[in-house]
Amino acid sequence: MAIFERVNYQDVTGVRVGRFNQGINTTFVVYQLFDTLIDTGPANQWQFVKQFAQQQQAKQVLLTHFHEDHSGNSLGLQQAGIKVFAPPLTQQLITKPYKMPLIQKLIWGTPQGAQVDLMPEKVSIGEQYAVTKIPVPGHCEEMYAYLLEDKGWLFSGDLYIAGKVKYLHRHEDFAEQITSLKRVLSYDFEVMFCPHRGIVKQGKQALANKLDYLENLIAQAQQLNNQGVDIKQITTQLLGKEDGLYYFSAGEFAKRHLIAACLAMQN
Ligand SMILES: [Zn+2]
To answer: What is the pTM of this model?
Structure first.
């Protein structure tokens, strides 16, 4: 267990924590701006998150979605006197510990349930920054990105993670993800704070590139399908054979899920 990195961009600081330093899917950046943390980091990194929250004198946490790496320290932070705010479904989902695949327990630890506060209509960070809450479902049923319009900064939850994604989790709604990418891109911003990728200075461009990549993938998959190529071959041809993540996740993450979702997209 360790702190792998400290990151900074103007007034934003962040700490990258994780049990295993195996890249962006096993580590997590908790960001802080003035009195606010964005997400809590995973439960098995509590000692570092606690220290960071106390050093930064955080008073509130805004949760983007319920996943354990984002919400796993909600109870601990509340017990340390910090208010934790969540959108309605997220608030409900984290009241009790939920069933997690072994691989996720191993990477992130198992969170305790927490009764957090409902995100109010108006939210601000420090005294000066109003937060625009943008719904970006797809990665899960409810997720929000938090935009500081005055600064052009976006806290993107798990909307980005990577530009050229090769896998889809079987619980992800791909069509919703595409809609969410388009929704976010209709706003003005520049810098993106991604809890896995880190700080992306040309964040809007990165999200636009991701949308382009996925739209191309959809077009290519549909073209091959129209030529009578079967889904297994389309997958291998466009994304390569299933690899480590497929086997470690017992098939929950699969390239085939992504191609199937591309084929199901209506134009
Ligand atoms: Zn997530």
So the answer is: 0.94
